[in-house]
Amino acid sequence: MDLQAIQAPIEKELKEFEIYFREAMKSQVSLLDRITYYIVKRKGKQIRPMFVFFSAQLVDVIKPATFTAAALVEIIHTATLVHDDIVDESMQRRGFFSINALWKNKIAVLVGDYLFAKGLDIALKENQYEILSILNSAIKELSEGELLQIEKARKLDITEAVYFDIIRQKTASLIAASCAAGAASVTTDKTMISRIKQIGEWIGIAFQIKDDLFDYGDDAIGKPTGIDIKEKKMTLPLIYTLHHTDRSTKSEIINIVRNHSDDRKKVKQVIDAVRTHGGLDYGTKVMKEYALKADQELQLFPDSVARESLRALIEFTVSRKS
Predict the structure, then answer these.
(1) Contact 43, 25 (CB under 8 A)
(2) Which CATH number fits the domain 3-319, given the four candidates 3.40.190.10, 2.60.120.260, 1.10.600.10, 1.10.443.10?
(3) Among 136, 134, 127, which residue's Cα sits nearest to residue 64?
(4) CA–CA separation, 64 vs 301, rounded Å?
(5) pTM exceeds 0.70, yes or no
(6) Tens-place pLDDT, residues 228-266
(7) Which of the ends of the chain has fewer CB neighbours closer than 10 A, N or C?
C-alpha cells in the first residue's frame, strides 16, 4: 500500500493540519517568515503527524490537542533537520537547497533554535504539559544519540548494543514520541500511552535500519549510496560484517572507512564486502523482527481503521524505496 492510500482515513485531518501548521510557523520577522514559508512549502511525507493522528484514533477520537501534538512533533522534527544539515555540512534536503545553503550557518542555527522555541510555545499556550514532557524527553534523547554517534565514529568501535542505543535515541525516540503524544492528546491513561510509545520505538528502530540498508542497496532497495561509509557512520550491516569476517578483511574495511572514505572505488569495496559477508541480509532480518514486534503488539488492540492504518505504516516503513 502506498503512502497516499494509508493517509486516506485521515485525509481531512491532514488538510486541516497543514493550515494549522502553516499558521503556527508564521513570524513577524520578515526574514524568518520567508524562511519558515520555504520550510512549509518543501515539507516531507508527514509520516510523524500520521503517527500522531492514528495513535490518537487508536485510543479515542481526534481532538484539538491532537493537532497541537502533531504540530509540535513536526516543528521539532524540522528543527532537528535544520541543525543536522549544519552539522553534516549538507547543501540539500529532500531535493531542495538546505537552509544553511541558502542563508548560511549563522541564520540556520538561529532558525533551528527558533523552531524549538516555537514548538514549546505552542504546547505551553495550549496547556499541553504531558505532550510537552513527551517531546522534551525526545529532544534530549535526540541530542544524546547524535553525540554518542559522533563520539563512537572517531574510534570505529561500535558494538551492536551501542548501535541500538544510538538509533533508539536519534531516530526511534521521535517516532515513539509521535505515537505517545498522539495517545496523550486523547487519554491520561499512562499505561496506554506507554504501550503505544513502545510500538513507536520498535517502528522507529525498523525505520532507521531500513535507512541503513539503503547505503548498501539491492534490487529491491535501489542503487547503493555509500553515504554512511563516507561519513564514517557504523551501521548495523557494517557492524555485523566486522564481527563475522577474518582479521585481514576487518582491518582492511576499518582502514578504508577511517582513511579512504572519499575514494569511490574503495567505498564500493566495503559495500561489496558487507553484501558478501551477510551484513545486508542480517540487517534486513533484524529490521523485520522489530517491525513484527510492533505489529504483534498492535494486534492486541481492538480492530479499527486506525489499527490497520498503523499496521500499513509499519509495512510501508520496511518496504519503502526512499
Answers:
(1) no
(2) 1.10.600.10
(3) 127
(4) 23
(5) yes
(6) 777 778 899 999 999 998 889 888 988 888 888 788 888
(7) C
